[in-house]
Design goal:
By secondary structure, the protein is of the alpha+beta class. The chain has 2 domains: 15-219, Cytochrome Bc1 Complex, Chain A, domain 1; 242-425, Metalloenzyme, LuxS/M16 peptidase-like (Cytochrome Bc1 Complex, Chain A, domain 1). It contains 16 helices and 11 strands. It has helices at residues 3-9, 57-64, 77-83, 108-120, 126-145, 152-160, 174-179, 182-192, 208-219, 268-281, 287-295, 327-343, 348-365, 369-382, 389-399, 402-412, and strands at 16-19, 25-30, 36-43, 87-92, 97-104, 198-204, 242-248, 255-263, 299-308, 312-321, 418-425. The strands form 2 sheets. A 6-stranded mixed sheet has the order 1-2-6-3-5-4, with helices on both faces. Strands 7-11-8-10-9 form a 5-stranded mixed sheet, with helices on both faces. Helix 4 runs parallel beside helix 9 (208-219) and helix 10 packs across helix 16. The chain is globular, with a radius of gyration of 23 Å. The N and C termini lie far apart (47 Å).
């Protein structure tokens, strides 16, 4: 696609927003191109809001709030959605929990009712807690413990964070969940799942006036909660490299990773680090791929990405060795490419290609109503209540210079500021 074509497609996302008296922030995006509507609620609660000894609560509630409500029988939530032509799900990160339904647009009212029931009338009882405890344990086994390289992000977080709850991972420990009492779950809900800690975003084929009236009917009665007070746990800078080894019974091929602590997602530098990722490993023409996979053939796979979170980010580069290549040699290869970024400006041609990649990514991220709903919610939640961040991000990316790319590599990607993680097959062990 030409640059002109991308710019033509990257049209401004129009929206309106307002607050209900109970503090619920509402964002509406109208699009009549297809007869669908996405109804979503983003709660500003994730694993970073948990206390020591009670990890995993936010992710647990992602499951628990599908159990049912005073007006929805246990196990009926998914059935109601699917029988009315919809899809629904939820996901949790370190920073937020996101629930959504995508319906034919004539089922908007149903979507609003379902999410208001979740917020206003959830049933939190022993049978639901016990049921979902087993579900979460099975998910942990499938997604992390029995999946090749499944625990790598959690292992990196433990190495990069000493004070911050990011070190605990999203799922947390099953011991903590087993030990928690019902009253603790109820208190967690009351503290974080209030309208004043949430964003309701609706995108799609809607009539704004009718939608506002429905929102007022379903969400107006929800009582405001106490203000959520959050204090970021500060980390001292890493000044000496940390080397560690982790073992995984599910893998045959080791991995070598280098991870660096970088600023949070609302900073300009976080965007610069995303650009650096694209230069290093974004496709077959990227620097690490060409050098290590194509030319030297010492790597099967290479990757560089900015795992951007609210308070900090984890910048991770890594590779899987090919045909018995030494992991330490791959680290040298990666360091050489980082050194080039720290020393020389990327070419004008590479810079233009980079801009094109990010514009293309912006367009594809905002082609579906659910993507637009989530991106609007993200802007309000993570960018200082700037919902219009969805339209500003591309402009911000265009303003990042080649000099900034070099300077960010110099500032954050130094050998004395990192965790080196050897991720090795567990000899003599089998996955549980």
């Amino acid at each position: 696609m030409s640059m002109l074509g991308i710019q033509a497609n990257a049209q401004k996302i129009e929206f309106t927003e307002y607050d209900l008296p109970n503090g619920l922030h509402v964002i509406l995006h109208q699009d009549h191109n297809t007869p669908v509507v996405a109804v979503s609620v983003m709660y500003h609660v994730g694993s970073k809001n948990e206390v020591a000894g009670r990890t995993g609560f936010a992710h647990f509630f992602e499951h628990l709030l599908f159990e049912g409500s005073e007006n929805i029988k246990r196990g009926e939530f998914f059935k109601i959605v699917s029988s009315n032509g919809g899809q629904n799900n939820a996901n949790t990160t370190q920073d937020r929990t996101f629930y959504y339904e995508v319906f034919p647009s004539n089922q908007l009212q149903l979507g609003l009712w379902l999410e208001s029931e979740r917020m206003l009338h959830p049933v939190i009882n022993e049978i639901g807690v016990k049921t979902q405890n087993e579900v979460v344990k099975e998910e942990k086994r499938q997604s992390l413990d029995n999946r090749p390289y499944g625990n790598v992000i959690d292992d990196i977080a433990k190495g990069l964070f000493i004070n911050h709850p990011y070190r605990n991972g999203v799922i947390g420990t099953m011991t903590d969940l087993d030990a928690a009492k019902l009253d603790e779950f109820k208190a967690f809900f009351k503290q974080f799942y209030a309208p004043n800690n949430a964003v309701l975003t609706i995108a799609g084929d809607i009539d704004p006036a009718k939608t506002k009236a429905l929102i007022n009917t379903y969400f107006g009665p929800v009582p405001r909660g106490a203000d959520v007070v959050y204090k970021k746990a500060e980390e001292t800078p890493i000044t000496k490299a940390v080397t560690d080894t982790a073992y995984d019974a599910n893998i045959q091929i080791p991995a070598i990773l280098a991870a660096y602590r970088v600023p949070g997602k609302d900073t300009r530098d976080s965007k610069v680090m995303e650009m650096i990722s694209s230069i290093l490993s974004g496709g077959s023409s990227s620097r690490m791929y060409k050098k290590m996979v194509d030319e030297k053939k010492d790597a099967l796979q290479v990757f560089a990405f900015n795992y951007a979170l609210e308070d900090y980010g984890m910048y991770i580069v890594g590779a899987l060795p090919n045909a018995g290549a030494a992991p330490a040699g791959l680290l040298t290869d990666m360091d050489e490419e980082i050194k080039k970024l720290q020393t020389d400006l990327i070419s004008e041609a590479d810079y233009q290609k980079l801009q094109n990649q990010f514009e293309d990514g912006f367009v594809s991220a905002n082609t579906k109503m659910l993507g637009i709903a989530e991106n609007l919610s993200n802007g309000y939640t993570f960018y200082h209540k700037d919902t219009n961040h969805i339209n500003e991000e591309l402009t911000e990316l265009r303003k990042i210079t080649r000099e900034e790319i070099r300077d960010a590599a110099r500032k954050y990607l130094n050998n004395n500021q990192r965790l080196i993680l050897y991720y090795m097959p567990a000899k003599g062990k089998t996955a549980q």
